[in-house]
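Section 4.2 – Deliverable D4.2 (structural model, holo form)

The reporting period included a commitment to supply a predicted holo structure for the target in complex with 3-iodo-tyrosine. Inputs used:
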Amino acid sequence: MVSSNFVPFPDRYVPPVPPEQALATFHDALRRRRSVRMFSDRWVPRTTIEWLVRCAHTAPSGANKQPWRFVCVQDPTVKARIREGAEAEEREFYARRANDEWLTDLAPLGTDSTKEFLTVAPWLVVVFQLAHGDDGSQVYYLKESVGIACGMFLAAAQLAGLSTLTHTPSPMAFLGDILGRPKHERPFLLIPVGYAIADCMVPAKAIERRPLDEVMVVV
Ligand code: IYR
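Output (structure tokens):
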């Protein structure tokens, strides 16, 4: 098992407080995260976005292939094109693609095909999954890997006091076209990042969490 490919576990993290205290602090930040659709245009520095990507990029991935690309858009012209493309897909979604159950489930969120936040939020981070490495090599557990990286991105943004939305205008192929990405990069998630407006409203239903004993089983 231990071979010359191995090094001693470097720089192990030890929390400065007991585990449950560290977790309570982390949980307090996470539990107050809300998906936000009412963004202000308050600027977020590029260096902050770099930190978010750095955090996401610590994610584990199948065979450590790191099969992700984070395309961070602040150019107003590009954001406008993304909004146009997303709203075109969303109009189809609300008019035709979504079935009745889906529309009923979405009703409490008050969403429609207008996506103003796509031009207002200072950054749109478009996460792409790489169908193969840039060198053509295989990748493994692609969705799991990119999903974990996105989760870490969202947690990092929350820790920094930033608001995010997990937006999935579907299908998302238009994002690869607008951003000029190569064919092996497939859009995975569109994450607007910024600050919520002062009088931001969120759906009451989005605050509820099922009790722990419904989501956790101990055997
Ligand atoms: N993509 C659409 C619809 C939508 C779907 C789900 I599932 C949501 O949780 C929220 C919205 C939209 O963004 O309006």
